[in-house]
Amino acid sequence: MTKRLLPLFAVLLLATTVANAAHARKSHRARRHNHTREHREYITVAYHPVELNTDDVSADSVIGFAQTLIGTRYRAASSNPLYGFDCSGFVNYVFKSFNVKVPRSSEEFYNAGERISMDDAKPGDVILFTGTRSHHPHSIGHVGIVFSNDGDGLKFIHSTSGKEHGVTITAMDDTYRRRFVQVVRLLKQNDDVVLASK
Fold first, then answer.
1. What is the C-alpha separation between 116 and 109, in angstroms, rounded?
2. Cα–Cα distance measured from residue 102 to residue 83, given in angstroms and rounded to the nearest whole number
3. Which of 117, 125, 139 minimizes the C-alpha distance to 94?
4. What is the pLDDT averaged over residues 7-19?
5. DSSP string of 126-185?
6. Mean pLDDT for the chain?
7. Is there a contact between 159 and 87 (Cβ–Cβ < 8 Å)?
8. pLDDT digits (tens, 9 = 90+) for 109-141
């Protein structure tokens, strides 16, 4: 009797293994399909600026605080200086330190604040770039804070996964210029500076 059940048991075990493998492949394909669909939905999102309360926050204080974080290592999906920062985690942490709630993901910065041209960018403005692997010209994948924009060109402070692998100040070069998407103004005091110069 045991000899007759042994082949039946082996067939059942094989069928179960094949069914589990097929289910795992189907689940993986569904997750990959959902990720692609979510990405496409982001690209079609319209610009709807979000108002932030930044009346009492100066660019000098934001930049001064951001500079204290130079050298903090890069760490994906982190906004904690004890572990490291990704790019949006760094920007989020800096503004959160001044009780300004800003987006946590770089994509969401597209709708934060007021759009400003690169020529009008001021220290404390947020600068948006495509990601290093992005194939869509407006897909946000990197974010930093404008450090300066003067005769020496635009410089920004950010957390990079590049060779510096952490928080650093970078000059706008051809690579970043190709990836540039937008500057957004969060600090209302920067608007006052523009108005005062007109």
1. 13
2. 20
3. 125
4. 62
5. EEEEE-TT--STT-EEEEEEEEEEETTEEEEEEEESSTT-EEEEEE--HHHHHHEEEEEE
6. 82
7. yes
8. 999 999 999 999 999 999 999 998 766 666 899
d(C-alpha 79, C-alpha 173), whole Å? 26
Q: Which two tokens stand for residue 11?
A: 């067939």
Cα–Cα distances (Å) from 35 to 39, 76, 173, in that order, read 6, 18, 32
pLDDT digits (tens, 9 = 90+) for 76-99: 999 999 999 999 999 999 999 999
Task: Kindly state the tokens that stand for 155.
Answer: 């410089």
How far apart are the C-alpha atoms of 119 and 172, rounded to whole Å?
A: 12
Place of tokens 């059942």: 12
The amino acid present at 35, given as its one-letter code, is H
Q: Please give the Cα distance from 39 to 120 (Å, whole number).
A: 30
Which position has the higher pLDDT, 9 or 93?
93
